[in-house]
Design a protein that fits this description.
This protein is mainly beta. Helices cover 6% and strands 47% of the residues. Strands 2, 4, 5, 6, 9, 10 and 11 form a seven-stranded mixed beta sheet that branches.
C-alpha cells in the first residue's frame, strides 16, 4: 500500500524553525516529483515547494524563497522541508504529495506554479506560528 506520512509540525514562535518530514512507504523514490502544499481553513490550498528526487531540482513559491529548503533522502524515501524565519502567515496544515512524473519540476519551474494533481497525498501536519 502506498502511503505518505507527513510529520514535524508544531507550535513555534515567529522567527523560529521547524523541519517537516514526508516519509514514503510502498514505493521507492526513482524519478519522482515530491512536494509540499499548505492550506488554511477557508482558503485555497497553496503549493509551497517541489523537488525532483532524481536530480534534486527544486522549486519554491515566492513567499518562502530564502526561508524554506526542500531536500530528499532517497535511501530513506523521505523528503524534508526545512522552514526557517517562520512568520504567522506560514500557519497552515502542510501536506506532502508525490507523483512518478519527475518531469513535473520542469513545467513547475517554467510556469511558476505548483501542480495541482499528484498521484499520492499524505495527511497533513499542522504548523502554527505565534506572533
Amino acid at each position: 500500500e502506498v502511503q505518505l506520512q507527513a510529520s514535524g509540525g508544531g507550535l513555534v514562535q515567529a522567527g523560529g524553525s521547524l523541519r517537516l518530514s514526508c516519509a514514503a512507504s510502498g514505493f521507492t523514490f526513482g524519478d519522482y516529483a515530491v512536494g509540499w502544499w499548505r492550506q488554511v481553513p477557508g482558503k485555497e490550498r497553496e503549493g509551497v515547494s517541489l523537488i525532483r528526487t532524481s536530480d534534486g531540482s527544486t522549486y519554491y513559491v515566492d513567499s518562502v524563497k530564502g526561508r524554506f529548503t526542500i531536500s530528499s533522502d532517497n535511501a530513506k524515501s523521505t523528503v524534508y522541508l526545512q522552514m526557517n524565519s517562520l512568520n504567522p502567515e506560514d500557519t497552515a496544515v502542510y501536506y506532502c504529495a508525490a507523483d512518478d512524473r519527475g518531469w513535473l519540476i520542469r513545467t513547475t519551474q517554467a510556469l511558476g506554479a505548483m501542480p495541482g494533481a499528484m498521484d499520492y497525498w499524505g495527511k497533513g501536519t499542522l504548523v502554527t506560528v505565534s506572533s
